[in-house]
Amino acid sequence: MARHVVMFCNHYQKEVLAVLSAKAYADVHPVFFPGVCGQPPLAWKTLYESLLEKIECDSVDVICGPCISGMDASLPGYHYFNITGLKQCFHMVANPDLIDQYQKNGCYLVTPGWLKRWDYFIRHWGFDQQTARDFFAEFTTGIHLLDTGVDPDAIRNLQAFSAFLNRPCQVTTVGLGLLDLLLNNIVLKRQLAVQRRDQGRLLENKQRETSQYAMSLDLLKTLTTAREENQVVEKIVEIFEMLFAPGILACRMIEEAALESQPALSGNPNRFILPISLSGRILGQLEIGEFQFPEYTTQYLNLASNILSVCGLAVENARHYQTMKNLSNTDGLTQIANRRRFDEHLNSEWRRMSREEKPVGIIILDVDLFKRFNDYYGHQAGDDCLRSVAAVLQKICRRPGDLAARYGGEEFVVILSGADDDGAMQRAGMIRDAVEKLHIPHEDSDVSRYVTASLGVATRIPTSRFPANDLVLAADKALYQAKMTGRNRVVAAKDVSVLP
Predict the structure, then answer these.
(1) What's the CATH class of domain 339-495?
(2) 251-285 b/e with 16+ CB inside 10 Å = b?
């Protein structure tokens, strides 16, 4: 008799079997129902009669998204029946926050199991190649594979699907850590139910171990929701403090091949080192020792081994999130902040400087006669020129609150937190000199043999009656004055009476 049946969509069959094989759950029997993505959901009664009713078992777990309708957990004949309903099946292999971010960016998410049947789904949706291309071009920015690493054909299938739709594709390696945690959670909950039923036969140390596993699962839920890597590290430390009550605890997020790939004792039986890894890559290590209950060292090591992959997954998710956040705030050409990031940072610094009663400086820069430069030298040279100017601005931004951004076209803007009139004008003069000293030839310029820049400067101590955007407008008017009076110069807003 299969003691415990777990039911999954067959799109995740390879992943589930890989996790179960690694964990060697002797009493777990996987059953897979057909995936029907984008079609009417499966009827639970039909599914039960065709699959589950034919299997002898005493406990059942069903894991599904919205692909099954009419779920009924009151079936007779089982001492344990549990349904884990997910908003999306992708949540089995990737952090929900990460999935939400990808979908907000217009990504069409796929998994290796779905990709094996992509042509089947295209036909059943009623698409030919042209209508499929039109549909996906309108509603998606590209195809994004959540690669679990179990199907060697996944990348080839992704490329075929991408080529069929004529859409760009991208891959994120998610591994099996989150699915491992989900299955571990399912098995432990079922074991807990068995233990409650057979309480009189359990030993005291088994009860303690179950309690620790339950605690670790609750703590790990908070770990997988952290978005920033430093938050993940803090939560990892909190988890091990709660579980082990150690006297020594240190976490380092580094990636070195020399680090141990498996938990290891360090010569001291009351201390061991844990690698934080994902898909064979070492992301860091955690050193822990001087346990409050050293007699449970072996038990601690076993428990730690079960949560290591989740720690690695949380770190990797945080890094993916940070990468996407950086991309959304970065100008693609110059690799400095974009207009969106500038607006966010200005509002933040405006509030901070208002509390500290210190000024905020704005410098707006325009590359002189840039259209002529583009026409004369070509757009590639124009792009190189803008990148060089952006590099100059980056060097000028030395303080924590400073920011250089591309404002649009050949215009750039610099935020100088805490800079007064003299300081902002001095920094603007340095920028003007540095741009000219790049010695980028500009034969079609009426100003100089080389590329030059005009700059407008405005500073102000923030008040509730003076919005941040008015400071930008003042700097822009000063820039206009600089261009009208000959270019290649710096003009302060206070000198042209544009600041109240």
Answers:
(1) alpha beta
(2) bebeeeeebeeebeeeeeebbbbbbbbbbeebbbb
- Identify whether 411 is a catalytic site residue: no
Domains in the chain: boundaries: 203-322, 339-495
Out of 3-12, 60-69, 205-214, 217-226, pick the least confident: 205-214
List phi, psi (to 5°) of 91. -65, -10
* Active-site position among 410, 411, 436, 443: 410
Distance between CA atoms of residues 122 and 411, nearest Å: 46
pLDDT for res 167: 94
Query: Which residues are CB-neighbours of 369 under 8 A, at least 6 positions away?
Result: 442, 444, 445, 446, 447, 487
Contact 376, 443 (CB under 8 A): yes
Confidence category of residue 473, pLDDT binned at 50, 70, 90: very high
- Smallest CA-to-CA distance from 78 within 164, 181, 4, 152 is with 4
Which residues are within 8 A (CB) of 429 and not within 5 positions of it... i.e. 6 or more apart?
490
Tell me the pLDDT band of 256, cut-offs 50, 70 and 90.
very low
Percent helix, strand and coil across the chain, each to the nearest 5:
50, 20, 30
DSSP structure class, residue 337? B
On the CB side of 111, CA atoms within 13 Å amount to 24
Using CA atoms, how far apart are residues 454 and 482, in angstroms rounded to an integer?
A: 6
Look at residue 257 in the predicted model and tell me its pLDDT: 41
Quick check: 252 and 243 in contact, CB under 8 A?
A: no
Helices (H), 437-496: 468-484
Supply the CATH classification number for the domain 203-322: 3.30.450.40
Residue given tokens 């609750």 in the structure block: 218
Tell me the pLDDT band of 260, cut-offs 50, 70 and 90.
very low
Q: Is residue 183 classed exposed, middle or buried when 0-12, 13-18 and 19+ CB atoms within 10 A define those classes? A: buried
* Tens digit of each residue's pLDDT (9 = 90 or more) over 221-246: 666 666 777 787 878 777 777 777 77
CA-to-CA dists, residue 358 to 22, 50, 304, 323, 463, angstroms: 59, 72, 49, 33, 10
In this predicted structure, what is the pLDDT of residue 70?
76
Q: Return the structure tokens found at 358.
A: 């210190």
* Residues found in the chain: 500
Distance CA 395, CA 279 (A): 38
For 185, other C-beta atoms within 10 Å of its C-beta total: 18
Nearest Cα neighbor of 477 from 459, 491, 460 is 491
Residue 322 has pLDDT above 80, yes or no: no
